[in-house]
Known about the structure:
Layout: E1 5-9, H1 18-33, E2 37-40, H2 46-57, E3 62-67, H3 68-72, E4 82-86, H4 89-98, E5 102-105, H5 110-124, E6 132-135, H6 142-153, H7 159-162, E7 165-168, H8 171-180
Amino acid sequence: MPLRRVVVYCGSSSGAHDEYVDTARALGRTLAEREIELVYGGARVGTMGAIADAALEAGGRVIGVIPSTLVKMEVAHEGLSELHEVATMHERKALMLELSDGAITLPGGHGSLDELFEALAWLQLEIHSIPIGLLNVRGYYDHLLSHLNHARGEGFLAPDHHELLLVGKDADQLLDQMARFRA
């Protein structure tokens, strides 16, 4: 399936290393160059702001989805192609997936992990059939991947469900994997 729109889950923080922001910016540029629209959490801060700015600077189309509470906190990005304001975080996650042909998770905190695992669970349950990718910058997700291998070994994650998560170290490699994905 061609990737026309990809949701990227990323942080409202920039992280402790410049490489996190640099990777977010590189992914934003790559999406724009491949004419893939970016869907993301709608904020102007952290790696969220970095990926949106880079995609826009490269001529890409960027769609933000943000809860009203965050708009009131003045973190919404004002220069997007589209900004959808929703009432709850759950609505945000559902709409971001609904708008997308694929999902990528960059390093982030609780919110990024919540988004990743909800998207994976929905794929496992066949609520959607889009590819889910993880961009493992600086080995950020090595421990998580080790835990998922442990869960598979302990019988809590079926082998075919374990294979649902695509992992890459750079944007081009991951996007190519996602383009070949068949649920």
